[in-house]
């Protein structure tokens, strides 16, 4: 049974993109659960709103500037100034996403999207139903494990933990999902047992 709640929170807007992944920008004031490591997000690909690229958040960077550097080095900066800088200044945040599939006409494909998202497109969290349906098969693990530009071991474990939350309230189905993921990882990493063992320890609650 899926959790029918949706959580289509805005993550940010696309800054730059490729078929491999994309970066999006956000305001530091809005950083929260929508930006968790391992979260599933989506964005429409360029010139086709009927196809959404599906990706995983693998890095969140809060940028600095000269003023931030000066405040960090200050001996005694009043709390009111620090709070004002955190809450009111336009401190940019970059969220980096690894593409692991796409949805076209309701069909899920575990492969790189045909085109990247267009700049300034909205990036939103996938709904719980979308995460459930996307993770019924685990073919996309290959795209994570083979991605040299991301912390792949930690990312695949975080992604599995994140996806398991859609079974909240049904511990039996959640356990069956985790076991299924472990078996897929065992097949994918049959030649690297040390790596497999490390990832499995990260998945455990």
Question: Main traits of this protein?
Answer:
205 residues; 35% helix; 7 helices; alpha+beta
Sequence-ordered SSE layout with sheet pairings:
Elements: E1 10-17, E2 21-27, E3 40-45, E4 48-62, H1 66-73, H2 79-88, E5 92-104, E6 107-109, E7 122-125, H3 128-134, H4 141-145, H5 152-164, H6 171-188, H7 193-203
Antiparallel strand pairs: 1-2, 1-7, 2-5, 3-4, 3-7, 4-5, 5-6
Helix pairs in contact: 5-7, 6-7
General description of the model:
By secondary structure, the protein is an alpha+beta fold. It has one domain. It contains seven helices and seven strands, in the order ββββααβββααααα. The protein has helices spanning 66-73, 79-88, 128-134, 141-145, 152-164, 171-188, 193-203, and strands at residues 10-17, 21-27, 40-45, 48-62, 92-104, 107-109, 122-125. Strands 1-2-5-4-3-7 form a six-stranded antiparallel barrel. Strand 5 and strand 6 form a beta hairpin. Helix 5 (152-164) runs parallel beside helix 7 (193-203) and helix 6 packs antiparallel against helix 7 (193-203). It is globular, with a radius of gyration of 19 Å.
Domain count, please report it: 1
Q: How much is the average pLDDT?
A: 88
Structural class: alpha+beta
Range of strand content: 25-35%
Largest sheet: 6 strands, antiparallel, barrel
* Rounded radius of gyration (Å): 19 Å
Into which percent range does the helicity of residues fall? 25-40%
Amino-to-carboxy terminus distance: 21 Å
- Provide a count of the helices: 7
Question: Uncertain runs with pLDDT below 50, 5 residues or more?
Answer: 1-8
Q: What's the arrangement of strands in the largest beta sheet?
A: 1-2-5-4-3-7
Order of helices and strands: EEEEHHEEEHHHHH
How many β strands by DSSP? 7
Backbone shape: globular
């Amino acid at each position: 049974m899926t959790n029918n709640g949706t959580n289509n929170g805005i993550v940010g807007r696309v800054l730059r993109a490729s078929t491999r992944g994309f970066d999006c920008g956000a305001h530091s004031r809005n950083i929260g659960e929508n930006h968790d490591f391992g979260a599933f997000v989506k964005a429409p690909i360029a010139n086709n709103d009927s196809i959404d690229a599906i990706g995983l958040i693998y890095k969140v960077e809060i940028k600095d500037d000269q003023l931030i550097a000066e405040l960090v080095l200050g001996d005694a900066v009043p709390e009111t100034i620090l709070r004002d800088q955190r809450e009111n200044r336009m401190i940019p945040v970059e969220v980096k996403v690894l593409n692991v599939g796409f949805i076209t006409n309701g069909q899920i494909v575990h492969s790189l999207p045909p085109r990247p998202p267009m700049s300034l497109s909205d990036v939103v969290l996938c709904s719980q139903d979308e995460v459930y349906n996307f993770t019924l098969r685990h073919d996309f693990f290959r795209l994570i494990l083979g991605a040299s530009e991301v912390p792949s071991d930690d990312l695949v474990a975080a992604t599995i933990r994140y996806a398991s939350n859609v079974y909240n309230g049904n511990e039996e189905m959640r356990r069956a999902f985790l076991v299924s993921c472990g078996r897929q990882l065992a097949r994918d990493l049959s030649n690297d047992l040390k790596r497999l063992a490390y990832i499995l320890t990260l998945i455990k609650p």
